[in-house]
Amino acid sequence: MLEEKFDEFFSEFYSDEISQLFLSFPKKRSLEVDVQKLAEFDLEVFDNLVNKPDETISAALQALKSFNKNPNLVFQNNLHVRFTGLDSSKAPLIQDVGANEIGKFIVVDGLVTKRAEMKPKVSIAALRCSYCGAYYKIEVTNEPLPQVCPECHRKGLKQVDEESKFINLQKAEIQDPLERLRGGSPASHLEIWMEDDLVNTIVPGDRILVHGILRIKPQKVPSKIYSIFLDVVSIKKLQKEFEEIEITPEEEQKIIELSKDPNIFEKISASIAPSIYGYEEIKKAIALQLFGGTPDKVLADGGKVRSDIHILLIGDPGSAKTRLLQYTANIVPKGIYVSGKSVSSAGLTATAERDELADGGWSLKAGALVLASGGLASIDEFDKINDEDKAALHEAMESQSISVAKAGIVARLNTKTAILAAANPKFGRFDVSQYPAEQFDIPPTLLSRFDLIFPMIDIMDEERDKKIAEHILKQHSQEYELKSFSPIDPETLRKYVAYARKNIKPKLTKEAAKVIEEYYISLRKLGKEKGAVPITPRQIEGLVRLAEASAKARLSQKVEVRDAENAISLINYMLQTLALDRSANRVDIDSITIGLPKSKVEKMNVILQIVKDMESKTKEKEAKVDDIIKEASKKGIDEFLAKKLINELIEHGDLYTPKYGFVKSVTQEE
User: Fold this and answer.
1) Residue 280 has what pLDDT?
2) Residues 98 and 66 both lie in one domain
3) What is the pLDDT of residue 531?
4) Cys-Cys link to 24, which of 28, 110, 493, 571 (CB 3.0-4.6 A)?
5) CATH number (domain holding residue 13)
6) Spatial distance between the Cα atoms of 455 and 430, rounded to a whole number of angstroms
7) Are both 454 and 523 inside the same structural domain?
8) What is the pLDDT of residues 575-623, one digit of tens each?
9) CATH number for 128
């Protein structure tokens, strides 16, 4: 009955696809069937698929095989009907999948967290009776293999592995996507089993829509409590990210009206963490980070340009860094908050681990940056991440991918993630008179990966302190209303950003490009005159990203002059607060990118040259510290700075002390 219905259904809807399948077999082995078409054709058959999937899929497969008119085409057990198209908006959360769904055909929206290696599974078992020698071949289903011989009726059937047929089986684990969870509830996991042409089609970090049959897992030890797994029928990859929030036509109209406000960008930035007073520039930067640049841009040589904006906040304890990070992770649909003290490179990137999923073998497990791909990762205590783990972040931040070569597993995972990080100064509080690289345990190479770096300094100012106190106390008072603090409520802001990211792909206009070009050239020219490097080509790409994000905030498809000026104002703020070389009163990006400003490098080279000159004049090939200081003062380096530079050169390994009061250069041949 069911088989006849499928004969009719396939003839009406899928005759061309079936002909193509048989021509491409065995390269192509699956016919994809939309269940919505099946429901239109016969609702009873559709209900049968949902409630009795094994019976229905088997009938569909037999009907499909009956269309084959080529006697030379032998399918064995590697032809499949893959049903897809159940309403994904009604897909249950993985945490809600349980006893009621066992044996049913369901759809689940999940994020792949780990994948085991492929293993062979018996599809057609060859059985021989050890008593009478009777030989059988049977198709393996979910029922146990028979042990009693139909000929002699004795329990003597044994599987002949060499003559049995196998197909590939692969196990993986999925979890609830972060954006579907609210209230900080932990993500639940579900094991999925894929067969034949579905193996190796997914990697950890992929967002997938899985259609399958929920089954009970075979128990090794008899028990009344069972585990469950999803026997996969079909897989569809999704790139559900910020853009995939559902927006009604009424909400879309509201968003478009909101974008017409000339002060929309100021309102958006004022709505970022409204409970925190001040930090206008930082909030503007975070607002731009939410929007991001124009995605999927490709360079002339085929290289991809990162569209995500990375921001680092460096500041004093109690300056609300953590609150800003947590707020931002909550407002994006796909946000992860981690603390550097408790995270490892495996926890941030990916790890290979032995577990039951791979039957004691190795499986690849995705870390926080992979799971947040398409969203935002807030990393607190960034300076507390150990050196090995920081090294893993270089590729993740610039190339937006992670190359894994662990336990024989070689893979490349996507980390298309914007990073908002926070760090504390080494000695408790931020000292504006010291160079940034000296105050934080973050390598300059990693610092340079950030588009924007902001200091959050606790300045003692009576007027400002009064306003902060009023702002905090007002939130604890009876008259408190969110509207009085936030011009745009969080839900509307989330949908506004999602709409912009999905629909707005701004292009740089000639006028805006000219403004950025002139700014870059003027700074480089100024740097040349003063003998410093105020800006590098890397900052041009950062400026473009920020300008594109500013255009997105206005829902504009063009990056205009005002967007370029917005970006320039933030870069200027960063350079004036962090890259200002106060000893020479000039902006020097080297103080961030290589850890030392050019003026300091020049003075260090002067000290090294003095040491080498003195070594060449003495028999012991060494230089007296007091003499070095005297010589340095003649060249404009005062005593205090000279002592400091000598100590730093000893720390860096350029000089060493053979005896008290003397130094030698490490490169000096003895």
Assistant:
1) 83
2) no
3) 55
4) 28
5) 3.30.1640.10
6) 8
7) yes
8) 777 655 545 455 555 555 555 556 667 777 888 888 888 887 777 778 8
9) 2.40.50.140
- Name the packing angle between helices 53-65 and 43-51 (round to 10°): 120
Tell me the average pLDDT across 7-12. 83
Query: For residue range 179-199, what is the model confidence (pLDDT) as tens digits?
Result: 676 655 677 888 888 888 888
User: Looking at 240, 260, 292, which one is the last position of a domain?
Assistant: 240
668: left (phi over 0), alpha (psi -120 to 50) or beta: beta
Cα 41 to the center of its chain, rounded Å: 42
58 and 164, same structural domain?
no
Question: Can you state the angle between helices 537-553 and 561-578, rounded to 10 degrees?
Answer: 130
Distance between CA atoms of residues 357 and 620, nearest Å? 67
Q: How far apart, in whole angstroms, are the C-alpha atoms of residue 483 and residue 213?
A: 48
Torsion angles phi and psi, residue 524, rounded to 5: -65, -40
**Quick one: 575 and 651 in the same domain?**
no
Q: Is residue 479 part of a domain?
A: no
What is the reported pTM? 0.66
The helix (H) or strand (E) run that includes residue 169 is strand 165-175
* 81 and 93 share one domain: no
Total tally of structural domains belonging to the chain: 4
230 shares its domain with 334: no
**Do 397 and 544 share a domain, yes or no?**
yes
Query: d(Cα 201, Cα 115) in Å, to the nearest integer?
Result: 10
Residue ranges making up the domain that contains 21: 2-85
Q: Are residues 10 and 63 in the same domain?
A: yes
Q: Residue 479: its pLDDT value, please? A: 57
Q: What's the rounded Cα separation, in Å, for the pair 74 and 72?
A: 6
478-486 average pLDDT score: 56
Token digits for 608?
């090294």
Residue 234 host element (H or E): strand 228-238
Other CB atoms closer than 10 Å to residue 598's CB: what's the count?
Answer: 20
- 232 found inside a domain: yes
Indicate the burial class of 399 (C-beta count within 10 angstroms; 0-12, 13-18, 19 or more): middle
- Residue 408 neighbours by CB distance under 10 Å: 9
How crowded is residue 359: how many other Cβ atoms within 10 Å of its Cβ?
12
